[in-house]
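U., I forgot to send this yesterday:
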Amino acid sequence: MEVLKVSATSQPKSVAGAMAAVLREKGVVEVQAVGAGAVNQAVKSIAIARGYVAPNGIDMVCIPAFAKIDIDGEERTAIKFQLEAR
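Result:
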């Protein structure tokens, strides 16, 4: 499964385009975000991406969860969003 990482400085339209492309190609994509700013950008991107894939008849659903990831040898808690075509 393709994993996209979102930061607080990510541009939502660009991330949404990447999400839509992977979703169309593979049917599923995981998005990871660490921190409030990154989660904010990820959620905005998800809303935009849903609008991008809807005209193609894809009903995108989002499954949020926590994930433990390693950043510079330090374990951090991330929010992960699994996006699927329904």
